[in-house]
Design a protein that fits this description.
The complex is a heterodimer of chains A (about 800) and B (about 230).
Chain A lengths: L4 H14 L4 H33 L6 E5 L5 H9 L3 E14 L2 E10 L9 E5 L2 E5 L7 E5 H7 L6 E4 L2 E11 L13 E5 L3 H4 L9 E7 L2 H11 L7 E4 L1 H4 L1 H39 L1 H9 L4 H36 L3 H5 L7 H25 L18 H20 L2 H31 L6 H12 L1 H35 L7 E6 L4 H10 L8 E11 L2 E2 L8 H8 L2 E5 L7 E6 L9 E4 H7 L6 E6 L2 E13 L10 E3 L1 H4 L5 E6 L6 H10 L4 E4 L1 H38 L2 H13 L4 H38 L9 H27 L2 H7 L1
Parallel strand pairs in A: 3-9, 6-8, 15-20, 17-19
Antiparallel strand pairs in A: 1-10, 1-11, 2-3, 2-7, 2-10, 4-5, 4-8, 6-9, 7-8, 12-21, 12-22, 13-14, 13-15, 13-18, 13-21, 16-19, 17-20, 18-19
Chain B lengths: L10 E11 L4 E12 L4 E6 L5 H8 L7 E6 L2 E2 L5 H11 E4 L11 H11 L5 H11 L15 H13 L5 E5 L7 H18 L2 E5 L3 H6 L2 E6 L2 E6 L2
Parallel strand pairs in B: 3-8, 3-9, 6-7, 7-8
Antiparallel strand pairs in B: 1-2, 1-4, 4-5, 9-10
Helix pairs in contact in B: 3-4, 3-5, 4-5
Classes of the chains: A alpha+beta (about 800), B alpha/beta (about 230).
Bound molecules: adenosine-5'-triphosphate and magnesium ion (MG).
The site of magnesium ion (MG) has 4 residues of chain B, from α1.
Chain lengths: ~800, ~230
């Protein structure tokens, strides 16, 4: 009997399929799996494209830099891990042509530079992009070098002990932003020619960089190997550390992409749970029949288990196929970077869609199956003997499965926690709300027409089913709405964070008495005067009663931070782009410190710790009374540590500012520098442009993934509503037999649908309002943001959506003779 | 009695044919059936299982459309009405009892029986439905759901639902099929009371000889054709 199990299960499945019994289940399952795998595939590729886009700013995936030549061991390990590697050597020197000379940043690169991104060569109006380094004996200069020395391509310049023919003008170097103080012109030469210049001598200021690129796990392995071996002066960084300006936007977009993938899991769960219920309801009779024919309980369970396995494999394969195809269709319909730079397909997300679908199927079908096992053969005769549905076990197991899957798919504890809170909250809210509504609708005698009354009563009569339906629908709608709000919040925050007039110059080393004249020079030029922040160089001596010993930090970043001199500021610590995460704002009357959150974490500084700084040989000691979050991508002056006025107000300080200069105002800036020779202006346009382009791409990615997830989600919800439609078809047909007019049938059905959809929508909107606010604040760090339109949007969207989904079926039933409609269901 | 069909037949079937398409060929399940029935008459349709009785009944009540031929009820051709027009006719004039009852599982016996009255907008729908359920012996089972009722009890709810609006025409598919002799006899009495009191025309499909004999007319089907007629 057991040997016959598989073939019998297959035959039963085939029969069910032919009879149309499984169509709804199969459609729901296939659509859910297709949505998960296509969204998964797409988000995975977009996430990797974004990451790679960011890596261009390093010209590599990982960079090791040092102030001494990099030991061979670091290169050997990279080769062992099959990583691509290139080297750059950067130092300042004079470049000469005839009697003209110019201080220049020289960058010697190996032939395979850059590993990520491209070098842009030519004139600003006609350029080409290339992945190459200058060939031996030649050099490429940037536009500033060409301008200041009056160069033409083909000229020969002198660098140290040898000459180079300068053949190209560089418009853009992918990793130029790495050297922040790049206000001098730049020259690229081949690494092979460095030695012959005779400029590399001990004591010269040289930065050595080893660029590495390769698969993510190899990079990770390399980093793990290298980190403990780093000596003083050596550093290893990826783009997030090297360019904190893009870190936030990268992390936010990644979270959004993962959230989209999670949303498709939620929707699949909602859809599969509905379909599975229906499926099991319809299978009570055959099970009872099998029992009367002498099948044992064990046989029945194993038979149905096998049927599920076969069904899952079938739906999984179909869903996977459809998902992959949908994903390709999407990608080929795309424009812009998402298409051109998309990394190759990875099969993991598709497979995980399959796994999630199958797991969900079992999660939702297993408890009812165990329930089926107890079906009494008597049910064939007495149809009321269905065993009481153990709703709690079924939902409990479903929820447990879902929790596991969410944890797995989220890949990030905070996101998982938020998703679970959102899910739990939605289920609780919608279940309570649905019960309440059904109770009210039966206990309030509303003066309604027969059609409406029938609809309301019908909903209340099928209480358990109605509640389950509302809960599942709520969950689906909530997930979609969450995506809608998070997308909106994120995009508008980005639009705000880097407006067109975001600062593109930093001015440092401003003396206190120069502030007023500089401000009035700005005003005289029709520009708004910038604000000036005091800056004091200081060394951190101790945290609490622990004297700071850089070597005691295992983390290389922490060690670097502990070694460095700090730039302190005082006063107004909570700028627009700073957010208090712990403690209270600085009290200017009392000596105290406010510390940036990530620095505090790295150095182990806690709220209440007393910090001691040395400034000009004097000790300054005060407790930490707040931790701040800083938006490094705002291009405003910001400080890791800020003291109160009472503490640092009396210390001599220079001032720092940032401001926006339009291209046509450059002359004004040059004039400023001439008037105040001590003033240093740093042009951060390059970085700003990089960050802005990164944001544009991240926004683009989010838009695509959002639109796609929304579409996939609506399809899933539609498939889910199908699973509740066959009961309606029968009811409509019977009402027709009893002579109900189309209007009455419409009233009855639409009352029911509108109530289910509307209630689910309102509750989902409410849940999305709270979850969205939580997401904005905790996950995306945008502050609390309540989108009050959500419940209304959910109400309208839910009601209209459910009605629209049922529309075609209802129209068909009303146009068909009742007997035919009855035979169909 | 309403004038428009007082002179003519209340049911007229002409050349009723029903074919269904199977995978390869078409199957004729009803072949050129024709008859006329005067108001307040009673007709029994008999025949072996699968002979087309239920199909004919469904066509007569306008629950399905014939492949060819025409049904005229109370002077109106069903072919010329749309689905809504036929539904309206059913609401006003016709009661139907399905062989498989077709009760709504989510409604109690009382709600099922009251449904047509509610649809017709009767103020005392539930009270009237309750009275009818009592007449069919279900006074104690008003609040039970169909799946809690036996087959015979469900059948009686279906009959009560068809009776509820005191229709001019009642179609019933084996109304006593699941009933014991005694209950069956009570239901038959009920049908003929309705026939007498309200001049309701009865069209019944039955295997029950007693019931067939109480009808004025009889029609025997075999293989979708009329093979014997009595009084029509
Ligand atoms: N939609 C359909 N498709 C195919 N065959 C059909 C369809 N409807 C009815 N039939 C066939 O037509 C024949 C007549 O069916 P019908 O239900 O009218 O029989 P009946 O006389 O009422 O039988 P019974 O006494 O068993 O109820 C049967 O053989 C049936 O299988
Ligand atoms: Mg029949």
């Amino acid at each position: 009997m057991v040997a016959a199990g598989w073939s019998l299960a297959a035959r039963m499945l085939r029969r069910d399929l032919r009879a149309g019994e499984l169509t709804v289940m199969l459609v729901a399952l296939v659509v859910a799996i297709a949505a998960m795998s296509s969204v998964g595939l797409f988000t995975d590729r977009v996430a990797r494209a974004l990451e790679r886009e960011a890596d261009q700013m390093l010209a590599a995936d990982l960079v090791m830099s040092a102030d001494q030549p990099i030991p061979d061991a670091f290169r050997a390990e990279a080769k062992r891990l099959n990583l691509a590697l290139a080297q750059t050597t950067i130092f300042p020197s004079m470049v000469q042509i005839g009697d003209k000379a110019q201080l220049t940043t020289i960058k010697a690169v190996t032939p395979n530079y850059p590993l990520r991104g491209k070098v842009r060569l030519g004139r600003p109006d006609s350029y080409r992009e290339t992945v190459a380094a200058p060939s031996p004996g030649t050099a490429w200069g940037d536009q500033r070098l060409f301008d200041s020395l009056g160069l033409k391509p083909g000229d020969t310049i002198v660098l140290g002990e040898r000459s180079f023919r300068i053949v190209e003008a560089i418009q853009r170097e992918p990793d130029a932003a790495m050297d922040l103080y790049n206000f001098v012109p730049r020259l690229l030469i081949p690494a092979a020619d460095v030695a012959s210049t005779g400029l590399i001598q001990t004591g010269s200021r040289i930065r050595y960089r080893l660029l590495l690129a390769g698969p993510a796990d190899a990079i990770k392995a390399y980093r793990a190997w290298a980190a403990p071996k780093l000596q003083r002066g050596q550093r290893i960084e990826d783009v997030r550390e090297a360019r904190p300006e893009v870190r936030t936007s990268l992390e936010r977009s990644e979270r959004f992409l993962r959230l989209s993938a999670l949303v498709s899991v939620f929707l699949a769960a909602a859809s599969i749970s509905l379909a599975a219920r229906r499926y099991v309801e319809r299978h009570l009779d055959p099970v009872a029949l099998l029992r009367t024919l002498g099948a044992s309980q064990r046989l029945i369970v194993s038979l149905f288990l096998r049927q599920y396995v076969l069904l899952a494999l079938l739906a999984g394969a179909l869903g996977l196929g459809v998902g992959v195809m949908a994903h390709f269709a999407l990608v080929s319909s795309l424009a812009t970077f998402v298409k051109t730079d998309l990394p190759p397909l990875s099969w993991w997300p598709a497979l995980s869609g399959f796994t999630v679908g199958v797991t969900l199927l079992f999660g939702f079908c297993l408890p009812p199956l165990l329930r089926l096992q107890k079906v009494s053969p008597l049910r064939v005769i007495r149809r009321d003997l269905a065993p009481a549905a153990n709703e709690r076990v079924a939902w409990g197991l479903g929820a447990l499965v879902l929790c596991g899957l969410i944890g797995w798919q989220a890949g990030d504890a905070l996101l998982a926690a938020l998703a679970l809170a959102g899910m739990g909250g939605t289920i609780l809210l919608s279940a309570t709300g649905a019960w309440l509504l059904l109770w009210l609708s039966t206990h309030l005698a509303l003066p309604l027409g027969p059609g409406f009354r029938f609809g309301v009563a019908n909903l209340a009569r099928r209480r358990v089913m109605s509640v389950a339906q509302i809960v599942a629908l709520s969950l689906g709608i909530m997930a979609l709405l969450l995506l809608v709000v998070v997308r909106g919040d994120l995009l508008s925050a980005w639009a705000r964070s880097l407006p067109p007039d975001a600062p593109n110059r930093f001015g440092i080393n401003i003396q206190p008495d120069q502030r007023a004249p500089i401000a009035s020079a700005f005003r005289a030029n029709g520009m708004t005067a910038p604000t000036f922040a005091p800056m004091i160089r200081a060394r951190l001596l101790s945290i609490g009663d622990k004297v700071l010993k850089p070597d005691s930090y295992k983390d290389e970043r922490a060690r670097n931070l502990a070694e460095r001199e700090f730039n302190l500021s005082w006063g107004d610590s909570l700028r627009k782009d700073n957010r208090l995460v712990a403690g209270r704002p600085l009290n200017d009357a009392v000596p105290e410190f406010s510390v940036e959150e990530s620095l505090a974490e790295r150095l182990g500084i806690k709220l209440g710790d007393r910090l001691v700084f040395m400034i000009d040989g004097r000790r300054f000691e005060a407790p930490v009374t707040s931790l701040r979050k800083v938006n490094w991508d705002s291009f405003q002056p910001n400080f890791f540590v800020v003291g109160s006025h009472a503490l640092l107000g009396g210390v001599p300080a220079s001032y720092l500012t940032s401001f926006h200069v339009r291209a046509d105002k450059q002359a004004f800036v040059n004039g400023l520098v001439r008037t105040y020779p001590n003033l240093t202006i740093i042009d951060v346009t390059v970085i700003l442009n990089e960050v802005r382009s990164m944001l544009t791409r991240a926004a683009e990615a989010i838009e695509y993934v959002f639109a796609f997830s929304l579409l996939a989600g609506l399809t899933v919800l539609y498939a889910a509503t199908l699973s509740t439609q066959d009961e309606r078809r029968r009811e409509a047909a019977i009402l027709r037999t009893l002579g109900a007019s189309s209007r009455v049938v419409w009233q009855a059905m639409s009352t029911e649908l509108l109530m289910v959809g509307g209630v689910a929508g309102v509750l989902a909107g409410l849940a999305a309002l709270l979850t969205g606010a939580l997401a904005a604040s905790k996950l995306f760090e945008l502050g609390w943001n309540f989108n009050w339109y959500l419940p209304v949007g959910g109400l309208v969207g839910g009601a209209a959506g459910v009605l629209l989904a049922a529309w075609p079926l209802l129209r068909k039933v009303l146009a068909t003779p009742p007997l035919r409609a009855l035979n169909h269901s | 009695m309403t004038p428009e069909f007082a002179k003519g037949p209340i049911v007229r079937a002409e050349g009723l044919t029903k074919q269904v398409g199977m995978q390869t060929d078409t199957l004729t399940i009803l072949d050129s059936v024709g008859f006329e029935l005067p108001p307040a008459a009673s007709l029994a349709i008999v025949g072996a299982s699968g002979s087309g009785k239920s199909t004919l009944l469904g066509l007569l009540a306008g629950l399905d459309m014939p492949t060819s031929g025409e049904v005229t009820l109370v002077g109106q051709s069903l072919n010329r009405l749309d689905e809504d027009g036929r539904a309206k006719l059913r609401a006003e004039r016709i009661g139907f009892v399905f062989q498989s009852f077709q009760l709504l599982g989510a409604l109690t016996a009382l709600d099922n029986a009251a449904l047509p009255l509610e649809l017709a907008g009767r103020a005392n729908a539930r009270r009237e439905a309750e009275a009818i359920l009592r007449r069919v012996g279900l006074g104690e089972r008003l609040r039970h759901y169909p799946k809690q009722l036996s087959g015979g009890e469900q059948q009686r709810v279906a009959i009560a639902r068809a009776f509820a609006t005191t229709p001019d025409l009642l179609f019933a598919d084996e109304p006593t099929g699941n009933l014991d002799t005694q209950t069956g006899a009570a239901i038959i009495d009920l049908l003929f009371d309705l026939n007498r009191e309200h001049a309701t025309t009865l069209v019944l499909v039955t295997h029950d000889d007693r019931l067939a004999q109480r009808c004025q007319c009889r029609l025997r089907l075999a293989g979708g054709k009329v093979v014997e007629r009595e009084g029509v």
